[in-house]
Amino acid sequence: IDETPGKKVYCTCGESAKKPYCDGSHSRLNTGKSPKEHVIEISERVRICDCGQTKSSPFCDGNHNCT
Predict the structure, then answer these.
(1) What is the predicted pLDDT for the residue at 37?
(2) Which stretches of 1-67 are assigned E, i.e. beta strand?
(3) What is the pLDDT of residue 39?
(4) Contact 31, 13 (CB under 8 A)
(5) How far apart are CA 35 and CA 20, in angstroms?
(6) DSSP reduced 3-state for 25
(7) Is residue 66's pLDDT more than 60?
(8) How far is residue 67's CA from residue 64's CA, in Å, rounded to a whole number?
(9) Please, which residues bridge with residue 7 across strands?
(10) How remote is the C-alpha of 37 from its chain's centroid?
(11) Which residue has the higher pLDDT, 60 or 67?
(12) What is the C-alpha to C-alpha distance for residues 67 and 56, in angstroms, rounded to an integer?
């Protein structure tokens, strides 16, 4: 996604209706996961993980298995 500078709160539970951003679903659904905050310093394109397999959350590291 193309991001603008500022603090972002990304979903890591997979339940947010506002993906890739957190909407509080992790709390309502008691997923045991917490969102990841990240500060974007400059406008840039980022790849946000949606599968939970990344080791560099909230960003995709290509560690998924897309089949």
Answers:
(1) 95
(2) 2-3, 6-10, 36-40, 44-45
(3) 96
(4) yes
(5) 10
(6) helix
(7) no
(8) 9
(9) 39
(10) 9
(11) 60
(12) 21
For residue 37, the one-letter residue type is: E
pTM, to two decimals: 0.83
CB of 54 closer than 8 Å to CB of 12: no
Q: What is the pLDDT of residues 27-43, one digit of tens each?
A: 999 999 999 999 999 99
For residue 29, the cross-strand partners are none
Number of Cα atoms under 13 Å in the Cβ half of residue 18 = 11
Type of residue at 33: K
* Alpha-carbon gap, residue 22 to 29, rounded angstroms: 13
Q: What is the pLDDT of residues 11-32, one digit of tens each?
A: 988 899 999 999 999 999 999 9
